[in-house]
Amino acid sequence: MTHEAVISVQNLMKTFGSFHAVNDISFDVYRGEIFGFLGANGAGKTTAMKMLTGLWKPTSGKATVAGCDVFTQAESVKRSIGYMSQRFSLYADLTVKENIELFGGIYGLSTRHIREKRIELLSRLALTDSEHELISALPLGWKQKLAFSVAMLHDPQIVFLDEPTGGVDPITRRQFWDLIYEAADLGKTIFVTTHYMDEAEYCDRISMMVDGKITALGTPDDLKKQFLAKDMDEVFIKVARHTQPIGQ
Q1: Per-residue pLDDT tens digits for 206-221
Q2: Cβ–Cβ under 8 Å, residues 37 and 53
């Protein structure tokens, strides 16, 4: 991790009528960092992610992702990032090979480059013998690993992962985090939302949102010290009791 900010957010807001879904949040994310974005359902983390990935236009504030302004360069933001949603972002009725080729084309890779990436990806994931299987036939854990690898196919600077390990067993979750670590070691920046507090421990820094505001931001160890907590579950409980933003 370096201290070069590849995501920079200042006083970002998203309102729906009188409702402030994201309310004046500010933070930076650094190159090569694994940045955890935590919050209960309705806290605003998904809305914030949609703005940072160029899907929704903010109401006010400032934000840049990979040097691109989310207000005026949303399409450039989308080309500069990888994204994996909770639903894996793969087509269940296409084969493994067809998904890789489809997304490689969407990302603008040449036929030769797609072929090279496909061979390397399948070998690394031990899926070479499964390239002609439908995505729907793969176990959940393999779908997630493949979706993450496809999100990395075009070599993006930043990868956004929205609840990537939901619904899988602890062993598969840990294997998935090994892929995240490998990507971070290559200098990729990982922005990940999760509701598993043990996964917060795997992040370099985490932010916690309550009612649209960032109420805590720091390393797991720093937050445990700040809130006199033995683990991240206890931190989250104590953070949820605060109504004023802290730690920014």
Answers
A1: 999 989 999 999 999 9
A2: no
